[in-house]
């Protein structure tokens, strides 16, 4: 599974992101931590693929990769991040979109088995929830699940997963800093 993005498209997207003042290094630092969190629930190759999708599908949006990664982990982390997962209520794919919500974003329910399309639909769904939440991302993520006690439980689980990913990000930053320190201490 590879993401088909041309170098020109990627260059254009990077320029647009930089113009908006978004820190690409921060976005990129999230990917290995997301992959590590995913790998604790699925195989390494799938974990890397899904982490790459979190990065690529959030470029040019107000979201960071961690934002849709934590949704995937809450929704299907307990089911190996399966692309064919179907909830008791009928939500589909890794990001668990209801068929009517997928269709409202231009995707068929069958397309939710395709990780890339499901990730795109999830970003669109989160965008629509962000509008409903008047720009409050935490509320938007809660609305992604719905309302009521189930949404409250969802938020609790999402926060725990976010802490897990942030701990992996911090660990990665420490490792990179140690590598830099080690290299600078070596004689030339």
Give the total of beta strands: 0
Taking Cα atoms only, what radius of gyration do you get, to the nearest Å? 17 Å
Per CATH, what is the topology? Lysozyme
CATH top level class name? Mainly Alpha
- How many helices in DSSP terms? 8
Order of helices and strands: HHHHHHHH
**Distance between the first and last residues' Cα:** 42 Å
Q: What gross morphology would you assign?
A: globular
Total domain count: 1
Summarize the structure.
With 188 residues, the chain is mostly helical.
Question: Could you describe the 3D structure shown?
Answer:
The protein is an all-alpha fold and 188 residues long. The chain has a single domain, classed as Lysozyme (Orthogonal Bundle), CATH 1.10.530. It is 67% helix and 0% strand. It contains eight helices and no strands. It has helices at 7-19, 24-39, 44-58, 65-76, 99-104, 115-132, 137-145, 149-185. Helix 3 (44-58) packs across helix 4 (65-76) and helix 7 packs across helix 8 (149-185). The relative contact order is 0.11.
What's the helix and strand layout?
Elements: H1 7-19, H2 24-39, H3 44-58, H4 65-76, H5 99-104, H6 115-132, H7 137-145, H8 149-185
What are the key terms here?
188 residues; 0% strand; mainly alpha; Lysozyme; 8 helices
């Amino acid at each position: 599974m590879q993401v088909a993005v041309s170098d020109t498209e990627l260059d254009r997207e990077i320029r647009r992101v930089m113009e908006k003042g978004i820190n690409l290094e921060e976005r990129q630092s999230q990917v290995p931590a997301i992959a590590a969190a995913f790998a604790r629930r699925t195989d390494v190759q799938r974990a890397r693929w899904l982490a790459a999708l979190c990065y690529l599908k959030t470029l040019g949006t107000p979201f960071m990769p961690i934002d849709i990664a934590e949704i995937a982990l809450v929704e299907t982390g307990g089911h190996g991040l399966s692309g064919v997962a179907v909830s008791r209520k009928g939500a589909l794919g890794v990001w668990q979109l209801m068929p009517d919500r997928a269709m409202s974003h231009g995707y068929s329910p069958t397309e939710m088995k395709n990780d890339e399309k499901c990730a795109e639909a999830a970003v669109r769904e989160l965008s629509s929830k962000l509008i409903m939440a008047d720009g409050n991302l935490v509320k938007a993520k809660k609305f992604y699940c719905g309302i009521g006690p189930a949404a409250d439980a969802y938020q609790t689980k999402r926060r725990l997963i976010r802490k897990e990913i942030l701990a992996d990000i911090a660990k990665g930053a420490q490792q990179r800093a140690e590598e830099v320190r080690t290299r600078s201490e070596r004689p030339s």
